[in-house]
Design a protein that fits this description.
- By secondary structure, the chain is of the alpha/beta class.
- The chain has two domains: about 180 residues, Leucine Aminopeptidase, subunit E, domain 1; about 300 residues, Aminopeptidase.
- The protein is built from 14 helices and 19 strands.
- It has an eight-stranded mixed beta sheet, sandwiched between helices. Strands 1-6-5-2-4-3 form a six-stranded mixed beta sheet, sandwiched between helices. It has a three-stranded mixed beta sheet with strand order 11-12-16.
- The two termini are about 25 Å apart.
- The mean pLDDT is about 95.
- Bound molecules: ligand BES, manganese (II) ion and zinc ion.
- The site of manganese (II) ion has 4 residues, from loops.
């Protein structure tokens, strides 16, 4: 799919489709009115008959007569014209894409004129969202044998006013790269754990770096981890036949001396719980326990594709959490790379144990900021459901930037307190800390654990347990929070 910005529609093409917003109004206005004039009043009729009312997320695909420049017109409900929220807009985009799936539409002309004003967002933002959503929706797990349900759409033109063209083109590029990153993250997330092992992820990093002078991949294996004293990471991976890997992807798009932004992902390629084994129902979904890592790959892919003028380092803590004769036992005490000792009271609290050594390792990059993404706690789903991720950290400015990027991208997050009062839950009689807290606030105590290893830099933690994949009939990785990470980079580091 090729997506671009233009000020006038493309010439008449076979199987094309115009996409236009309809509001809670009795008459089509602006772009919809122009299209209505071109199409014998079919939009007016659709409104009059009540087939579309302008409710956000409602869509109606109309077929026109041969004389019309458009073979079809897709009406997309956007709500009250005066108060379209960003969430309404994103809902409308999602609905439009799902209506277009599996149709014969080959090219789209989307009318994004200033008459579709969305709250405080620019037209460029609308273009970016559309491009990113469209490109992100092209993903199909069954590829390349199977073609994506959006594959027939070859060309998308976003129509904007002349004065907006330049901004919108740049935003469209950003959106397309973000969408490509989302596809990467979804693809890795959905891979089964017998294929997507820590070594597989390491190879992917090496492939990303190959023939690219600005990208370097470094793989730290278990032998070297032992030398570095990463006793916490190794305590997780020692129960598995798969070797754990700490994967580092350095992208140098900025000045040589510029401190990097580090994106760190939990890459537990399968989480059985270890000796503290999980119940078997739904355990297959623990192949998604590497979705934090997948988002790092997705974001790095997007940065590289855009040639973003920033130094970004992606780090993935990849390990498999298995029970077995060599697995860590509850009660075992291990020493982390930081020197702090950990009593492993529950081997299912493994994410924090691989991440803590990665957080210490990262100090060598003297990062400007560190953001980690992790499917860390079931408690986060209890607290926030599937609507947003949990945000915690040691730096208010960084947290505010991520909240903002969340709102602007649709990958929202909600901050939870990381007060000292929660730290005592990690007290241990036999080590500097236990790896789990008490009954309450499991998401916060997990972050408390991480915070003890992230003192050297501004740090934020996104618990993505509720958002990284969908269960049930639509089981599959979402690619979250790639869009939020890219928005954060665009807004604060470019
Ligand atoms: N990967 C899980 C968290 C998880 C569970 C994410 C379900 C998404 C859906 C994590 O490693 C884990 O097992 N956490 C434990 C922590 C507990 C032992 C303190 C949990 O949430 O139960
Ligand atoms: Mn676990
Ligand atoms: Zn886990």
């Amino acid at each position: 799919m090729q997506i671009s910005v233009a000020i006038t529609p493309a010439k008449k093409q076979a199987n094309n489709c115009a996409v236009v917003a309809v509001f809670n109004e009795t008459q089509p206005k602006d772009s919809a009115m122009l299209l209505d004039n071109d199409s014998d009043g079919c939009i007016k009729r659709a409104i009059k008959t009540g087939d579309i009312t302008g409710k956000p997320g409602q869509t109606l695909l109309l077929h026109t007569s041969d004389a019309c420049q458009w073979s079809r017109i897709l009406l997309v409900g956007m709500g009250d014209k005066a108060s379209v929220s960003p969430a309404d807009y994103i809902k409308a985009v999602d609905a439009a894409i799902s209506t277009l799936r599996d149709t014969g539409v080959a090219s789209l002309n989307v009318f994004i004129t200033s008459d579709t004003q969305v709250a405080d967002r620019s037209t460029a933002w609308q273009c970016q969202q559309l491009a990113s959503k469209l490109a992100g929706a092209e993903y199909d797990y069954r590829a390349p044998k199977h073609t994506s349900s959006l594959a027939k759409i070859k060309k998308v033109t976003l129509l904007v006013a002349k004065k907006e063209q330049k901004n919108c083109s740049a935003a469209c590029e950003q959106g397309m790269a973000t969408g490509a990153g989302i596809c990467v993250a979804r693809g890795l997330g959905d891979l089964p754990a017998n294929i997507c092992t820590p070594s597989f992820l390491a190879t992917r990093a090496q492939t990303l770096a190959k023939n690219r002078s600005k990208v370097k991949a470094t793989i730290v294996g278990e032998k070297q981890m032992a030398k570095l004293g990463m006793g916490s990471f190794l305590a997780v991976s020692q129960g598995s036949r798969e070797e754990g890997k700490l994967i580092i992807i350095e992208y140098k798009g900025g000045k040589a001396k510029q401190a990097p932004v580090v994106l760190l992902g939990k890459g537990v390629t399968f989480d059985t719980g270890g000796i503290s084994i999980k119940p078997s129902a739904g355990m297959d979904e623990m192949k998604y326990d590497m979705c934090g890592a997948a988002s790092v790959f997705g974001a790095m892919h997007a940065c590289i594709e855009l040639g973003l003028p920033v130094n970004v380092t992606g780090v993935v803590a990849a390990a498999e959490n298995m029970p077995g004769g060599e697995a860590t036992r509850p009660g075992d005490v291990v020493t982390s790379m930081s020197g702090q000792t950990i009593e492993v009271l529950n081997t299912d609290a493994e994410g924090r144990m691989v991440l803590c050594d990665a957080l210490t390792y990262i100090e060598r990059f003297k990062p400007k900021a560190v953001v980690d993404m992790a499917t860390l706690t079931g408690a986060c789903i209890v607290a926030l459901g599937h609507e947003c991720s949990g945000l915690m950290g040691n730096n208010d400015e960084l947290a505010a930037q991520l909240i903002q990027a969340g709102e602007a991208s649709g990958d929202r997050c909600w901050q939870l307190p990381l007060w000292d009062d929660y730290q005592q839950q990690l007290d241990s009689n036999f080590a500097d800390m236990a790896n789990i807290g008490g009954k309450g606030a499991g998401t916060i105590t997990a972050a408390c654990f991480l915070s003890r290893f992230a003192k050297a830099y501004p740090w934020a933690h996104l618990d993505i347990a509720g958002v990284a994949w969908q269960s049930g009939k639509s089981k599959g990785a979402t690619g979250k929070p790639v869009s939020q990470l890219m928005q954060y980079l665009f807004d604060n580091h470019v």
